[in-house]
Amino acid sequence: MRPLLLLPALLLTLACSSKLERGKAEDLIRKDYPVVVPVTVPERASADKGSPEHLRLVALKENLDRTGWFESAAHTEGGRETFTFRLKADAPKTIKAAPKGFSMPAAEAVFVRALRMEPTREGARVTYEIRLDKPTAQFPLFQALHPDAKVGQTKQRHATFERRRGSWERTGTDEAFRKAE
Q: What is the Cα–Cα distance from 83 to 46, expressed in whole angstroms?
């Protein structure tokens, strides 16, 4: 009779341990942070004068002119102004070529905590929070393009997990930024 009682207890123990724990999810997410929040400088961009996009480009040009890392120019054609930005040879090596422009670190985003965990058919979906942190000298450029961005601001992200070979693995995330190098 004793082995019959042992089997349900063993199955209950296995079922409970197969659930993704908050601490385990946070550990798996945390290893992919901090991520670099870049500011992208276009090689060429144009906008109608007086438009919000034009105001952002003017602010970007002013900020870039202060750094001395770019040669910038603005040409007016009718009611439209075209801006061009070229990287100077003595610019810092942290500025990388990007599609249609240049990318440089503006800040980091760090993992804060898991907010919600939802079981799914395949495993679990975790909603977590990141915080904008450690601004660089280029953060004013980032703010010129994204006026609502502030250091300490938090955003939500989502990660999916599946149980594979007896352990939990993160299978996806909606994080758009890459890990800091």
A: 6
Contact present, 91 and 97 (Cβ < 8 Å)? no
Question: Whole-angstrom Cα distance, residue 116 to residue 110?
Answer: 18
| DSSP 8-class letter at 112 | E
- Other beta carbons within 10 angstroms of residue 120's beta carbon come to 10
What is the chain's pLDDT, residue by residue, as a tens digit (181 residues)?
455 555 554 444 444 446 889 999 999 999 989 999 998 889 999 999 989 889 888 888 888 888 888 999 999 988 899 999 998 988 888 888 888 889 888 899 999 999 999 998 889 999 999 999 999 888 888 887 788 889 999 999 999 999 888 889 888 888 888 876 6
